[in-house]
Specification:
This protein is an alpha+beta fold. GO terms for molecular function: asparagine synthase (glutamine-hydrolyzing) activity.
């Protein structure tokens, strides 16, 4: 796990050695073990290394081909690098390291750009081909590793890298907030567009690569998709295939020359991974003063004892959370108000004291159908027996009535899945968001304009599959995986996700919907497979998520005053109707309503904005 930064030179004369060094310094947390750079007349590349496989200096990056014409910087792990390496050796290539990185260079030389289809792993990389005067940037199929790019510069410099903050030291980079990003963020709780909160800075989409020639993008191509195509077979067959495939994936993901541990909550996903991995240490987190309300650490400790693993725990206080929030948002690069990012930051800090690599359970819900919203309620199933046209008419009437749980039900009952489901994180109602925003910030895209292109790729699938496909392509890379990468890298910790493996996904694509989600349970087939490794209590436990006591903290005077100060600040008035914000805060504080998520999402944005735009003039 590492980080890289680079740029194709623009027209302005600058000291490229000094510039790339300063850019590298901003991401030293991603790679504290060593740094390296490549500077020629056309490009500058910088790399920070966290040594995981082949700890020798020979594996330091940038890496070069034998003739020096190909230069690589790479972040991630390639889990099938050994078999790829053997094939390339048979074809006559000479390797100077035992690392997985060098495989990328010679695979590119042998197979061209399409070699990316052969890779199994998590990755973002840049290959600079001097002879062809072209650059290739690529990102893994799930978006586990981040990769940003921009030509929003004063002199046509093309900049790219693992974190946006590393763009800031470049003298040609134009730092400007993207006004269109705020509106959808309030509803999604994360940056859901390709363009980020920094104007002109984009995320390379998962499962895509691009070719840059003469400082311009000449090709952008998707090389893999995650569409389901169910194949009939017995439940028993799929349970056994899941068991074998997940076990093999954990084996591949534990390859390392440094210590490996696992994150462990009380849920099935991390428990299954931990049971297969059997590390020396598992790591868990809870909240001080809320151990009985928001705490899965007891379950984690109990399972660790059963597996004969040492469980290390930490408990986080509200004071620690509010103190560290600016640092957390600095590492995020963009505002991200998923409350679970906070405990994850402290969990990574804990784990980094003992190990360099951790395995975690992210991705199982999206792949195998684990979220409760995939499973329709019995009330909704009964209501949907009424003809859709009539339900749609009822919904149009309900929309005009005061909002409550009954009118919300009737509105949802008269909508298609494309209309009512935008992913897990529905925070601000869109109408409320528009009302609280100043006019200049209302022009961003609607949430449905963001989800529509993804839904259009699977028009004939059932509702469960459509929801999973949306989450796999939007929620998973935009929220879950982003915070996993940024919070772990903040502590120089490599986080691996064995459920998000190419082989696991190829199997999951075949599993019929009724084996993923049915009236009995979510993640139905996965839970049955986990019974081979876990006690029944863990395999069948309902998902709790990563609960955080935000609503309680915001009803304490200390934190109420802290948030109120931010809401009434001069910079908040640039974006929001601050009187309305304070009203939401007061109503929550006095327990007239629960606006915790509304408040937290805005507060996180303001913390982020202050860190990047107020404190850094």
């Amino acid at each position: 796990m590492c980080g890289f930064i680079g740029y194709i030179h623009g027209t302005e004369e600058i000291d490229h050695h000094e510039t790339i060094e300063r850019m590298m310094d901003t991401i030293i947390h991603r790679g504290p073990d060593s740094g390296g750079k490549h500077v020629d007349e056309k490009v500058s590349l910088g790399f920070r290394r966290l040594s995981i496989i082949d700890l020798s200096d020979a594996a330091n990056q940038p890496l070069y081909s034998e003739d020096g014409s190909i230069v690589l910087v790479f972040n991630g792990e390639i889990y099938n690098f050994q078999e790829l390496r053997e094939t390339l050796i048979e074809k006559g290539y000479n390797f100077k390291t035992r690392s997985d990185s060098e495989v990328l260079i010679y695979s590119y030389m042998e197979y061209g750009e399409e070699f990316v289809k052969q890779l199994r792993g998590m990755f973002a990389f840049c290959i600079w081909d001097k002879n062809r005067n072209q650059m290739m940037l690529a990102r893994d199929g799930f978006g586990i590793k981040p990769l940003y790019y921009t030509n929003h510069t004063k002199d046509n410099t093309f900049i790219f890298g693992s974190e946006i903050k590393s763009f800031l030291p470049h003298p040609a980079f134009i730092k400007e907030m993207n006004k269109d990003a705020l509106r959808p963020y309030l509803t999604f709780q994360y940056s859901a567009m390709d363009e980020t909160f920094f104007k002109g800075v984009y995320k390379l989409r998962p499962a895509h690569y691009m070719i840059i020639r003469d400082g311009k993008i000449s090709k952008m191509e998707k090389y893999w998709d995650k569409k389901y195509h169910a194949k009939d077979n017995t439940l028993e067959y799929y349970v056994e295939e899941i068991r074998k495939t997940v076990k093999e994936s954990v084996e591949a993901h534990k390859i390392s020359d440094v210590k490996v541990g696992s994150f462990l909550s009380g849920g099935i996903d991390s428990s299954y991974v931990t049971a297969l991995l059997r590390p020396n240490n598992s790591f868990s987190v809870g909240f001080k003063n809320y151990e009985k309300m928001f705490n899965e650490t007891d379950h984690a400790k109990e399972l660790s004892d059963i597996l004969n693993i040492e469980n290390k725990r930490t408990y986080v206080s509200a004071d620690e959370v509010f103190e560290k929030l600016p640092t957390i948002q600095w590492h995020m690069d963009e505002p991200q108000s998923n409350p679970s990012s906070v405990p994850l930051y402290f969990l990574c800090e804990l784990a980094s004291k003992d190990v360099t690599v951790v395995l975690s359970g992210e991705g199982a819900d999206e792949i195998f159908g684990g979220y409760e919203w995939y499973q329709p309620s019995k009330r909704m199933e009964a209501y949907e027996k009424i003809p859709f046209g009539l339900r749609k008419l009822i919904a149009s009437i309900a929309k005009k009535l005061p909002k409550n749980k009954y009118t919300n039900f009737l509105v949802k009952g008269g909508q298609t899945i494309e209309e009512r489901f935008i992913g897990e994180a529905v925070v601000w109602d869109e109408e409320d968001a528009l009302n609280v925003l100043k006019p200049a910030y209302r022009s961003g895209p609607s949430v449905h304009s963001i989800t529509k292109p993804i839904y259009s790729e699977v028009p004939y699938e059932d509702d469960v599959t459509k929801m999973q496909y949306l989450d796999l392509n939007l929620w998973l890379p935009g929220d879950i995986l982003l915070k996993a990468d940024k919070m772990s890298m903040a502590h120089s910790l490599e986080l691996r996700v064995p459920f998000l493996d190419k082989k696991v996904m190829e199997l999951a694509k075949n599993i019929p919907t009724q084996y993923r989600v049915n009236e009995k349970d979510t993640k139905y087939a996965l839970r049955l497979a986990a019974l081979k490794e876990l006690p029944e209590e863990w395999a069948k436990r309902k998902k709790l998520g990563f609960p955080v006591p935000i609503r309680h903290w915001l009803r304490e005077e200390k934190y109420y005053n802290l948030v109120k100060e931010a809401f009434q600040s001069d910079y908040a008035k640039e974006f929001f109707n601050t009187d309305q914000l304070v009203k939401y805060l007061d109503d929550h504080y006095h327990q007239r309503a629960n606006y915790a998520r509304y408040i937290w999402t805005v507060y996180v944005f303001l913390v982020w904005y202050k860190r990047f735009f107020v404190d850094m003039k």
